[in-house]
Amino acid sequence: MASRTINNIALVGAGGNMGALVLKNLLKSSLKYNITIVSRLDSKSIFPEDPSITIKAGSYDSDSFLASAFSGTDAVVLALHFEAIPDMAIRLIKAAAAAGVKWIFPPEFGSDTGNEVMINVAPIHSLKVGIRNAIEELAKDHQGLKWVGVVTNPWLDWSLQKGMYEIDIPNRKATLLSGGTAKFNTTNLSTAALSIVRLLALPITSSSGPSLSDYGNRLVYISSFRTSQREILDSVQRVTGTSDSDWTITNRDAQEYIEEGAAKIANGDIWGMANVLYGSVMKGDMGGDYESAWGLSNTALGLPKEDLDESVRAALQDTSSRASSNVA
Ligand SMILES: NC(=O)c1ccc[n+]([C@@H]2O[C@H](COP(=O)([O-])OP(=O)(O)OC[C@H]3O[C@@H](n4cnc5c(N)ncnc54)[C@H](OP(=O)(O)O)[C@@H]3O)[C@@H](O)[C@H]2O)c1
């Protein structure tokens, strides 16, 4: 027997990288949701028109706006830009709790913030833990309030398009960290978004299968691939019809790479964060391979099996179609 499901969903950040794909998947779902897009007054985001969508744009400093934005909502997905972490996220969560929301998807969607090494390596990770702790504190006064945190590691397609993972495809340059053979998990952005929609589709409780309550106050680990930097580069080479001789490939010590990022951050250069986040995932002994540590929820959520070369090809095609549409 399964209990009722989530019907009314508020999505914050619905025009962003993650939020836009969550919205797309919600609209495609056979379950008919009432979707409230909550957005800042000065937002530049453009949202699709659909009868199931209500857009509520207003000041996040206004208690009455937030109370009306979250009124009647079962679940809130916070697909928020990193600058909103933690203060704005916590403000939104407090308002959601006061409005009676029971399920919060906090802005996780990255590295394993259940791993002490990962938590300590980057300030953003401890801020994310702080958000989860704030929800549990609020639950003392708001019975039944729970969080569900989705762990994905760096998004593969998004990262390749941005030249992250130290693989610069247009310039055919790669920097392998400590040989690039350490295994880690990585998830396509579309799969990460789909996992949230699969979680939202679960019954609240069930005696015959997975339910949302199984994931209450827990991190949910999903992954498209358990792979290595060298395997991703091999795939990029297969897809682009190139080989090592076409690339400039250098090697760097992973620890030194992370420390360089930390030093940049200490000097006020936020871009050092990329070294810290990607380096800690790729180093091999810091929690990047969470599949081996905790297992995955891919099967329970019915996520599709994916092919590395197809994912790389799709990421590169998406980049080139966006580049040509920019030119037009
Ligand atoms: N795993 C990865 O590779 C990876 C990469 C990037 C991000 N992430 C994580 O994924 C989550 C979502 O990131 P994202 O890249 O999808 O976000 P994003 O596209 O940068 O921003 C999402 C939305 O946040 C809102 N926003 C922007 N600045 C804000 C501010 N100062 N205060 C409040 N709201 C603001 C905007 O919505 P409105 O304009 O509608 O208000 C924006 O569309 C975060 O938890 C982030 O840590 C993971």
UniProtKB/TrEMBL annotation:
Pfam families per the UniProt record, alphabetical: NmrA
Ranges of residues in domain NmrA-like: 8-140
Taxonomic superkingdom: Eukaryota
Gene3D superfamilies assigned to the protein according to its UniProt record, in alphabetical order: NAD(P)-binding Rossmann-like Domain, UDP-galactose 4-epimerase, domain 1
Keyword NADP set for record: yes
One annotated GO molecular function: oxidoreductase activity
Key words of the record: NADP, Oxidoreductase
Protein name: NmrA-like domain-containing protein
